[in-house]
Design goal:
This protein has an eight-stranded parallel β-sheet. Helices cover about 40% and strands about 15% of the residues. It has a single domain, classed as Aldolase class I (TIM Barrel), CATH 3.20.20.70. The longest helix has 30 residues. It is an alpha/beta fold. Bound molecules: flavin mononucleotide. Flavin mononucleotide binds next to loops.
Length: about 300
């Protein structure tokens, strides 16, 4: 007997939603577009960023850890780099690549560790600091990640991190207008709209909630990054059209990283940027700031 199939997997739901959004063309009067962007006071070559990854290996018997390899690629491409859970010595090797890097610290139950990692990041030259608030809970309460317990985070706690350093603070794992508004209130400079590759069953696709978040943050100056399932320039274009300032690739860059390290990631992300420029040119948007949702169908 055939069984009725459903999926609560937010990765699948997100991919299906992104692929259901279609793009019209506008060729007359259109010229080659420019993907450069200003983001938190710096100019980057494109609104494409690396993901806040952790726990990568030294692939292919190579000397460098995958985190260092993709950071080198970010440096060479002049894009904003992110990294996630790690000890301070690994973060130092990432910053030493010269990549402008945002260090996303875990919501550790040990609040002293949170503060230490944030202050250390500032002392060694991080571009920004942040926290992934979507990795607090696990199946039995507060999650335990590689032996480290996580904790709830109140708005006051987040505000205290904002005032801890002079660096811009980024909240990762925002998936509601409620949290987005709270981030603006506590003084965050950017948010990452994300469900952290499906941590929440039936999580709303980031691009579906994005227009409401964009509207709620109007006038606050809070920058919006989107991740989850971003694999192509078309995905980035759709995110920008729906209100994001930038999008981060994620697991889509892993095959290139594993097989060819820094060069592989460079090639992969350059391809994403090239497709973004192609679609911008074909839709009549000369600059990233001009992109809007009037060329999208199905939203
Ligand atoms: C191997 C791996 C490690 C990750 N580590 C972290 C982390 O330490 N902190 C964090 O905020 N997100 C972490 N993430 C989540 C990513 O930053 C990203 O939000 C997620 O993978 C969604 O994007 P994707 O669907 O494009 O992969 C990790 C993801 C992967 C695959």
């Amino acid at each position: 007997m055939e069984r009725y199939q459903r999926s609560s997997d937010a990765n699948v739901i997100t991919e299906q939603y992104m692929d259901s959004i279609l793009i019209e063309s506008r060729y007359i009067d259109s010229v080659k577009a420019d993907t450069a962007v200003d983001f938190l006071g710096q100019t980057f070559s494109m609104p494409v960023m690396t993901p806040a990854f952790s726990h990568l290996k030294n692939y292919g018997g190579r000397d460098k850890n995958g985190l260092v390899e993709y950071s080198e690629a970010a440096k060479e491409l002049n894009i904003l780099n992110f990294c996630g859970m790690m000890e301070n010595d690994m973060f130092k090797s990432i910053v030493d690549t010269g990549a402008k890097t945002v260090r996303i610290v875990k919501p550790y139950a040990d609040n002293g560790k949170v503060r230490d990692q944030m202050q250390y990041a500032e002392s060694v030259g991080a571009f920004g600091i942040g926290m992934d608030i979507d990795h607090i809970f696990g199946s039995e309460g507060y999650d335990v990640v590689v032996g480290e317990e996580m904790s709830y985070q109140t708005a006051d706690m987040l505000h205290s991190y904002v005032t801890l350093t002079k660096l811009p603070f980024v909240v990762k794992g925002v998936l509601s207008v409620t949290d987005a508004a709270a981030c603006a209130e506590i003084g965050a400079k950017a948010i990452i709209v994300s469900h952290h590759h499906g941590r929440l069953p039936y999580a709303v696709p980031p691009m579906l909630v994005l227009p409401d978040i964009k509207a709620a943050l109007e006038g606050t100056g809070v920058k919006i990054i989107v991740d989850c399932g971003i694999a192509t320039g078309a995905d980035v274009f759709k995110a920008l059209a729906l209100g994001a300032d930038a999008a981060a690739v994620g697991r889509s860059m892993l095959p290139a990283l594993e097989s060819e390290g820094t060069e592989g990631v460079k090639q992969f992300i350059r391809g994403v940027g090239n497709e973004l420029r192609y679609i911008m040119s074909s839709t009549g948007f000369r600059t990233v700031d001009e992109i809007d949702s009037s060329v999208l169908y199905g939203v």
